[in-house]
UniProtKB/TrEMBL annotation:
Protein's gene: rpsQ
The family this protein is said to belong to: Belongs to the universal ribosomal protein uS17 family.
InterPro entries listed in its UniProt record: NA-bd_OB-fold, Ribosomal_uS17, Ribosomal_uS17_bact/chlr, Ribosomal_uS17_CS
Cellular component GO terms held in the UniProt record: cytosolic small ribosomal subunit
Xref: NCBIfam families: PRK05610.1, uS17_bact
Taxonomic source organism: Rhodoblastus acidophilus (Rhodopseudomonas acidophila)
GO biological process: translation
Protein name: Small ribosomal subunit protein uS17
Subunit structure: Part of the 30S ribosomal subunit.
Domain of life: Bacteria
């Protein structure tokens, strides 16, 4: 099973080796037929601490690293 890769924006970098990434998804509401935006925050592992608030990043699903972290930030070279 392939690992999921999501794109989002860093909203917090206050923790050590962790960034909080806001991922937005759009879908059509089943009853209203209107495009709806939903956002979700993911805690992602950032070993080097290279990413700051406002950076656009790709995150990849991985094994659980801690209670909240099961995503890692992909390096800039691996952006698809």
């Amino acid at each position: 099973m392939p690992k999921r890769i999501l794109q989002g924006v860093v909203v917090s970098d206050k923790q050590e080796k962790t960034v909080v990434v806001k991922v937005e998804r759009r879908f059509t509401h089943p009853l209203l037929k209107k495009t709806v935006r939903r956002t979700k925050h993911y805690h992602a592992h950032d070993e080097a601490g290279a990413y700051k608030v406002g950076d656009s990043v790709f995150i990849e699903e991985t094994r659980p690293i801690s209670k909240l972290k099961c995503w890692i930030v992909l390096p800039n070279e691996n952006k698809a």
